[in-house]
Task: inverse folding
């Protein structure tokens, strides 16, 4: 039973992370190793199309830091996302969920005060996403609820 809520997938292996990023970065498209390698090259990195294909096939599990940086360039995310036991996996997933909700119109705008060049803190972004899910599920935790108002 799918209620439309996106669950955070298990992203423990390099293959899982790259498959997830292909799905989220190029939704509905079949991206070839050559196209991705060309994209990495355009962005100043280097990655062979066959190496990328081997990553997707699960044949490469422990690439060099240089390869991880090339993957980050190609997908436009922090390269550390692809490291083993990365702390940035949750941050990237939350950011992608936020962008998906923005595209579908669930989020029309967001204003933040006192933000630095890094933008929203990952915990704040996750909090915003949880508020949207609560609202969508009919569990409005808006200002009335926070002020002790009665729910009808």
Result:
């Amino acid at each position: 039973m799918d209620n439309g809520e996106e669950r955070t997938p298990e992203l423990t292996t390099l293959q899982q992370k790259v498959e997830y990023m292909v799905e989220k970065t190029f939704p509905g498209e079949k991206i070839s190793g050559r196209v991705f390698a060309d994209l990495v090259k355009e962005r100043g990195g280097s990655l062979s199309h066959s190496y990328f294909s081997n990553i997707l096939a699960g044949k490469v599990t422990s690439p060099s830091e240089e390869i991880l940086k090339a993957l980050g360039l190609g997908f436009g995310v922090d390269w550390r996302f692809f490291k083993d036991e990365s702390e940035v996996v949750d941050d990237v997933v939350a950011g992608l969920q936020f962008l998906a909700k923005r595209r579908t119109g669930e989020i029309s705008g967001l204003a933040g005060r006192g933000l630095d060049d890094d933008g929203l803190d990952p915990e704040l972004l996750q909090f915003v996403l949880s508020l949207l899910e609560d609202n969508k599920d009919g569990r409005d935790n808006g200002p009335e609820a926070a002020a002790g108002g009665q729910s009808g």
About this structure: The mean pLDDT is 77. The CA atoms of residues 38 and 49 lie 8 Å apart. Helices lie at 14-25, 33-42, 49-56, 65-75, 89-104, 122-136, 143-146. The chain has seven helices and no strands.
